[in-house]
Design goal:
- Helix 1 (about 50-60) crosses helix 10 and helix 9 (about 255-270) packs parallel to helix 10.
- The protein has helices at about 50-60, 80, 100-115, 130-135, 165-170, 190-200, 205-215, 215-220, 255-270, 290-305, 310-320; strands at about 20, 30-35, 65-70, 75, 85-90, 120-125, 140-145, 175-185, 205, 225-235, 270-275.
- Strand 7 (about 140-145), helix 5 and strand 8 (about 175-185) form a beta-alpha-beta unit.
- About 35% of the residues lie in helices and about 20% in strands.
- The protein has one domain: Ureohydrolase domain (Arginase, Chain A, 3-Layer(aba) Sandwich).
- The chain is α/β, with parallel strands linked by helices and about 325 residues long.
- It binds manganese (II) ion (MN) (2 copies).
- One manganese (II) ion binds near residues 149 and 163.
Length: about 325
């Protein structure tokens, strides 16, 4: 019998992908997982509701064979959606007031996804979670961070796991070759952090530099085909675009600029996973615009990743087995 499955009907898995409870049975190329965690938010909480809101908004894109872009005439993700190559593996379990234990579970979950050869797509959560994803990788990787803020606060015995610390942890990981921070502009940025970032061999690309150079030239400094993890703090977008983001800042990217940058990343680099963080549904406008934009970003980025020859070769190789 025909089912319409309107977006408000049914169980909200990401894009209505099938759920996989036991990741050892995962048989997909893309695994969506949530980290409903906001204990790393020193200002207003609420990003713990991010994964659920993103899944709900994703249903507005579900029920069609792929994502059709009328501007380019291209269709994205058709093979992935029709072939059932996307699975939703659910959320990390949260141990309130025990972030180390929550993060351990998160790292294990990402490792399990990688062990099945799938690409992890992580729904945050605040930005503190990203280090627990990145440490799950064994291989050398580059890290690209889209953010208004550097998130490079010094780690002390008193403070170590806020959303302002993640990239200090990441920079210290032996397998992380370099961090490229794109969109940095907050006037609350500390000069000491900037000095440390550069002294550690990482790169800051402020908004103006991205605009002056263009995204292709920005990513051209990274080796062609290099494997990279991409972390998208939704506050990289301009303040009025993201009412449901506590850390929103003026003079951010417009959506087309973020999309172009992500497209350039997907074309040049081999994206091995990504996350989207800092969407705060309780503070969003009633339409869920910030969550919708988050899902829009995920779907377009995923679409560009899956449109690359290197991805298509993997997909065809998998189908041939
Ligand atoms: Mn951030
Ligand atoms: Mn930020």
């Amino acid at each position: 019998m025909l089912r319409l499955n309107r977006p408000y009907v049914g169980i909200p898995t990401f894009l209505r992908a099938r759920t996989v409870e036991d990741i050892s049975n995962l048989d997909a190329m893309i695994a969506v997982m949530g980290v409903p965690f906001d204990e790393g938010s020193p200002f207003l909480p609420g990003t713990r509701m991010g994964p659920r809101a993103l899944r709900e908004q994703s249903l507005r894109f579900a029920g069609r064979p792929g994502i059709y872009d009328v501007t380019t005439g291209q269709e994205y993700l058709r093979a992935e959606v029709e072939g059932g190559l996307i699975s939703d593996v659910g959320d990390v379990d949260i141990f309130p007031t025990n972030p180390e234990k929550t993060f351990e579970g998160q790292t294990e979950m990402v490792r399990a996804i990688l062990g099945r050869g799938a690409l992890p797509v992580v729904l945050g959560g605040d930005h503190s979670i990203t280090f627990a994803t990145v440490r799950a990788f064994d291989e050398p990787i580059y890290v690209l961070q889209f953010d208004a803020h550097t998130d490079y606060a010094p780690i002390t015995t008193d403070l170590r796991y806020t959303n302002g610390h993640a990239f200090r942890h990441i920079a210290a990981m032996a397998h992380v070759k370099q961090i490229t921070q794109i969109g940095i502009r907050s006037l609350r940025t500390s000069p000491e952090q900037v000095a440390d970032i550069r002294a550690d061999g990482n790169r800051i690309v402020p908004v103006k530099e991205l605009r002056d150079l263009g995204p292709e030239r920005v990513v051209a400094s990274l080796p062609e085909g290099a494997r990279c993890f991409v972390s998208i703090d939704i506050d990289v977008l301009d303040m009025p675009l993201v009412p449901g983001c506590v850390s929103a800042e003026p003079n951010g990217l417009n959506y087309a600029e973020l999309r172009a940058a992500l497209q350039a990343v997907a074309a040049r680099l081999d994206v091995v996973g990504f996350d989207v963080v800092e969407i705060n549904p309780p503070l969003d406008v009633p339409t869920g615009a910030t969550s919708y934009l988050g899902v829009h970003t995920i779907i377009e980025f995923l679409g560009h990743i899956c449109a690359q020859p290197r991805w298509r070769a993997r997909r065809d190789g998998r189908a041939a087995r």
